[in-house]
Structure formats: C-alpha cells, structure tokens
Amino acid sequence: MIKAVNRISIQKGRVQEVAERFSKAKSVHTFEGFVLMEVLIKEGTEEEDVIEVCTTWEDHESFNAWRESRATQKSHGSGDSGKKPEDNPILGAELSIYEVFVQHHPETK
C-alpha cells in the first residue's frame, strides 16, 4: 500500500477557498486500487497556508494509472498553456510518495 501526499502552498487567508475544491468526490474515487482520500489543513502557519491532499492506494500501479488517466490530465489542466490565472491562490505544490509500513485501527467489539 502507498500514500501519495500533495503538499499545496496557498496564499495566506485563502486556504478555505482551495480546500472547498476537494469537498466533493471526483474521479479519483472511481479508480481501481483507490483506498482513501484525506485533505489536511495545516495549523499555525505564518507566511502561507498549506493543504496536504493525501490519497492511499493499494499499489504503485493503481496510483500511476490514475495519474496517467485522461480524466486526471483534464482536471489538472495539462492541455492548457501552462499559465496560471492571475488570481490563482496556489503558490506551488510538491508530491511525495510513501510506503505504508503499518496501520493500526481501533479494536472492534
């Protein structure tokens, strides 16, 4: 199992605007091998706000299939000129991939 974490830097004061974009399920939830998505808003930042979009996948192949899909390319604007709209609150993003080594779940009764 792997976890993909996309750390998104956002203009200070605009974190809710960006977080709302993730509040409704999109195509990622339909992909084979998708397990879970979490959107985390970092607390206590000073210069910029930070969101981490964390998706958990059964394996690298499932994650890579999602990344390479046409739906993903369209939703991430890969067909545009590469220019950001002038009022875009997103300052940058960094993707990290982690192997899920262990998970502990609540005891069921």
UniProtKB/TrEMBL annotation:
- Annotated region Disordered: the residues are 67-89
Which ranges carry the ABM domain? 2-91
What Gene3D superfamilies does the record tag this protein with?
Answer: 3.30.70.100
Q: What PANTHER family does the entry give?
A: HEME OXYGENASE (STAPHYLOBILIN-PRODUCING) 1 (PTHR34474:SF4), SIGNAL TRANSDUCTION PROTEIN TRAP (PTHR34474)
Give the family, as the similarity comment puts it. Answer: Belongs to the TRAP family.
What is this protein's record name? Answer: Signal transduction protein TRAP
Identify the species of origin.
Salinicoccus cyprini
